[in-house]
């Protein structure tokens, strides 16, 4: 089961006050805070979220108490179209049947471009500015951003000309193309992060120019006659912004098999396929795919060896007779549009998923930011090498959730026994 932080959803949203009661659900939220001039005590918020309430035609985005909001625009991320919105109070949301609306709260009510498909989602981007003197303060040349952040994936961008001098949560740091410093993190814990960031104005002599060529990396001056060991050309992407996730449903270990699905967003104009290269030593079967934005089922092919090159499929490596790929086809992505895909398949891997005596062993590397492993029915975990959040699924199976906030793989190792 995909890890979503929501309660069970019920019915679609009628437009009348006689709507049946329902609970709003959402997933995959990401927030970017861009700190503006300190004197304004304001920050721009870019909020991405997937609405998952089946049949929903509206979405309510809560406004934090104490903030003075200005909403600039709301977009449908699949099509890039601007959406209609209005600010309403909690009573209005309750009148439309939203059970989990705080009647004393305020909300940005967004009219969706299409109803949320069953088992799918509608992706939104809300662009707004908050003035919040309690969260964003300054004293002399030092600024402080202190705010409880309940969203799991966040980025805070300092104003132009400021350096980072303090952050209380493990974070990725990078300089953006315009020279601003970005601090981003993924929260894998059970509650909101009380996040504190402090920045300091840089002297005018400091270099923050990064816009002419953000990928340019200067070769360091050195007196060595051998190449530098440092990764001088190393570039990395913002991990918190990445939205790939994967869920493994382990079958009984004697089969060496597991069903999986992974979700992926494609936004490159003209792209019409997703190519999944099957790992060496594994075998893929029963593939299927759909567009989560619409529920549309997609055409899927499994190609091997020479078939791959003959179909014009490039995989970035040498193709051998043993090479196997699963190709998912969809309409070419239009400029400014994107599609959210869900790919499902069954893998058999006798090298990485085995039974030894009374125990099953799962030994597999994960490269995606968010990963879940669900044990077979009737098994309990006895060892887990990489820290994970552990809970039970609705049918009583044990789920281990791994949030990898680093730009590399984690080598997940699990042992389990039958109850």
Radius of gyration, in Å, reads: 24 Å
Mean pLDDT: 90
Number of domains: 3
Q: Helical proportion?
A: under 10%
Number of helices: 2
Strand content: over 45%
What does the main sheet amount to? Answer: 7 strands, mixed
Please name the CATH topology of the largest domain: Immunoglobulin-like
CATH superfamily of the largest domain: tricorn interacting facor f3 domain
- H-E string: EEEEEHEEEEEEEEEEEEEEHEEEEEEEEE
Which regions contain 5 or more consecutive residues with pLDDT less than 50?
1-18, 212-223
Record the strand order, biggest sheet. Answer: 4-7-2-1-10-13-12
Strand segment count:
28
Using the coordinates above, name the CATH class of the largest domain.
Mainly Beta
Structural class: mainly beta
Query: Which of globular, elongated, flat, extended, rod-shaped describes the shape?
Result: globular
CATH-scheme architecture of the largest domain = Sandwich
User: What is the distance, rounded to the nearest whole angstrom, between the alpha carbons of the first and last residues?
Assistant: 21 Å
What does this structure look like?
- The chain is mainly beta and 419 residues long.
- It is globular.
Offer a quick outline of the entry.
With 419 residues, this protein is an all-beta fold.
Task: Give the tags.
7-stranded mixed sheet; mainly beta; 3% helix; 419 residues; single chain; 3 domains; Immunoglobulin-like; Jelly Rolls
